């Protein structure tokens, strides 16, 4: 072995020893010759969870950290009683917009953030303490709390037509082409907004009677398995012609499908995507993100007279599920369209027939 300056195995991850975990064999010291290999592999943890999940966890954990700081409690690691007290504080919060308390789903996401940061730091998560589990189980059965059960309403054929009519009023042809393609593709494919933003030109296949869209990754496909959406051209408001028209007008031949436009709305912005290293993300520009698509749909909903309180980007996915159900498609057909792997998940998106 090359006896160069050694480095300690724990120095890169900075994880304290946890006596409750299984003990693994460790070299007394590792040679500097493998440092670059170790760093290369360790950098992959950046992609362990999605960027959206990471932002949500960071936001939730900051709330917990502030609570601990206010009451002079330890944050990391935290006492399970501290977590229970935080739950008590959070569950009593009244939302100014809805006048309701935080839902159990929101509180669960707060606990998920606490668990994530404890595990990352090498500590046993206090959220797994029996008392914490009992508290959350009780919350799920408590019918006395006034919580917001708001859920985005589905955009179906009638609402979709209203949105397209509003888009038609846009003064520039390139804006009309792009936004129609986004709305129609999002609706017919039941895409999440992040999935729409990630579609690239080489993911599209225009076949004789359908548009085929490949999804390298999705929320239910984190491992990069093969996943396709087959979108028939025969369906009302099919995305086939709208997407093809957008590609023709924009003259986009590769890269991200949906691009940013200049402030005057007359042309596509310069496009740049760096491919090397995590820091390269800061140099990516010229294409729409999921939040951009969300804000765009909110804008058109408001102009069409659909309150953005009840309609949003998720309404396209919910509308896809509900409309296919109205069209008498079975659950397996709908799941193949949306990418769901569990029929029970459709209940969240499916709105009952009148």
Q: What's the number of extended β-strand segments?
A: 3
* First-to-last CA distance: 74 Å
Structure class:
mainly alpha
* Number of H- or I-type helical stretches: 12
Give the fraction of residues assigned to helices.
Answer: 40-55%
- Our Rg estimate from Cα atoms comes to 24 Å
Would you identify the regions where 5 or more consecutive residues have pLDDT less than 50? 1-19
Give the CATH topology of the largest domain. hpI Integrase, Chain A
**Residue-averaged pLDDT, rounded?**
81
**Order of strands side by side in the largest beta sheet?**
1-2-3
Largest sheet: 3 strands, antiparallel
CATH class of the largest domain: Mainly Alpha
Envelope shape = globular
Which secondary structure elements does this structure contain, and how are they paired or packed?
Layout: H1 35-42, H2 51-70, H3 80-91, H4 104-120, H5 130-141, H6 157-167, H7 173-189, H8 193-198, E1 204-206, E2 210-214, E3 228-232, H9 240-250, H10 290-303, H11 314-326, H12 331-338
Antiparallel strand pairs: 1-2, 2-3
Organism: Shewanella woodyi (strain ATCC 51908 / MS32)
Biased composition (Polar residues): 1-12
Pfam family, one: Phage_integrase
């Amino acid at each position: 072995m090359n006896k160069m300056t050694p480095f300690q195995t724990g120095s890169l991850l900075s994880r304290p020893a946890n006596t409750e975990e299984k003990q693994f064999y460790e070299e007394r010291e590792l040679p500097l010759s493998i440092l670059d290999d170790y760093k290369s592999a360790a950098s992959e943890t950046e992609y362990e969870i999605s960027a959206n999940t990471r932002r949500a966890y960071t936001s939730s954990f900051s709330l917990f950290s502030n609570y601990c700081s206010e009451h002079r409690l330890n944050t990391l690691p935290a006492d399970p009683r501290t977590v229970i007290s935080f739950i008590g504080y959070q569950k009593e919060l009244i939302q100014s917009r809805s006048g309701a308390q935080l839902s159990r789903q929101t509180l669960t996401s707060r606990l998920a953030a606490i668990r994530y940061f404890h595990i990352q730091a090498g500590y046993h998560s206090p959220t797994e303490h029996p008392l914490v589990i009992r508290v959350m189980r009780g919350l799920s059965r408590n019918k006395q709390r006034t919580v917001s059960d708001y859920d985005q309403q589905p955009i179906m054929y009638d609402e979709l037509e209203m949105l397209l009519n509003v888009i038609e009023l846009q003064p520039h042809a390139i804006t009309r082409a792009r936004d129609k393609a986004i709305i129609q593709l999002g609706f017919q494919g039941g895409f999440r907004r992040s999935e729409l933003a990630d579609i690239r030109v080489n993911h599209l296949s225009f076949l004789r009677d359908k548009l085929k869209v490949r999804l390298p990754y999705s929320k239910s496909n984190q491992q990069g398995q093969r996943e396709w959406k087959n979108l028939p051209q025969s369906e009302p408001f099919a995305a086939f012609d709208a997407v093809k028209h957008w590609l023709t007008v924009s003259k986009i031949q590769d890269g991200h499908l949906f691009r940013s436009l200049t402030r005057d709305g007359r042309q596509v912005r310069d496009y740049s995507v760096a491919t090397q290293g995590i820091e390269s993300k800061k140099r990516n520009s010229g294409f729409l993100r999921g939040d951009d698509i969300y804000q765009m749909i909110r804008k058109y909903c408001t102009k069409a007279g659909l309150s953005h309180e009840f309609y949003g980007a998720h309404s396209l996915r919910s509308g896809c599920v509900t409309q296919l159900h109205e069209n008498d498609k079975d659950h397996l057909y709908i799941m193949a369209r949306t990418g769901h792997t569990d029929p029970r998940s459709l209940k969240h998106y499916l709105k009952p027939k009148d």
